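Quick one: examine this chain and its backbone structure tokens and tell me how the chain folds. Here goes:
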Amino acid sequence: MTAVTQIALTAPTGPTSSSSARAAEPVYDRIGVGYSSVRRPDPRWARIIRAALGDARTVLNVGAGSGAYEPTDVQVVAVEPSLEMRAQRDRTAAAPCVIGRAESLPFDDQAFDAVQAVLTVHHWSDLEGGVSELLRVASRFAVVTYDMDVQAGFWFTRDYVPEIAEAERSRVPSLERLTSLLGPCEVAELPVWHDFTDGFMTAFWRRPEAYLDPLMRRACSAFALTDAEAVERGVERLRADLASGAWHRRYADMITRDSMDVGFRLLTGTSPQAAGDRRTTAGERAGV
């Protein structure tokens, strides 16, 4: 049994005494109720994220939630602070899960071949600290985030609940800031198909009736962390536009589209620490 597996299996699985973990739980526990019934990983994204991990044999999933997008063909350890989200992990299939936060990962330097962080960086209390930890514990990274400059123009946000963009900009890091912390990396667009299965806010761009469902909205932080009255006002306007046919007339061009860019981006690269280690090893072999 490897050291990585030993850490995962001996870590606590119940409530933690860590004040930082407790601080994250109220939000996650509120927006996470019923999460896995709405937020089902889309297999197309899963394939893209898996390919980004390359030939990694050990992967750390930070902000792992209920286990979405965890590869199944390599050794995975998950890190998640929320009791509600940990409870929704499939105990027969999901990776071992450690209670913890991105800002303080309980692993040695370069303990993993790769680290993934999917739609989680906007929940971290210390972005710089969390990114530093990602780069410390793994040789390469695959981070999924979204560009608010794109999402602010999404039809639901722009025309029905502009308050979502205001709330999101206060917590979603810009691509410029995130890439400056990660260092040299590739940025790739992640399209959202019309039949996307992961029910985040923009997933229903061609299925507007979904926004009328309070269970769907509750599983999405963009709704849960925006002023509730503003969301209800926007939903009621949408309900009226759907009933009158105004929505279909206004957005008729979307009905035939297969996918849409709503701002999601995959950031991949190599940890500067790992790159430095490789340069040192190469120099030693050359006798430098």
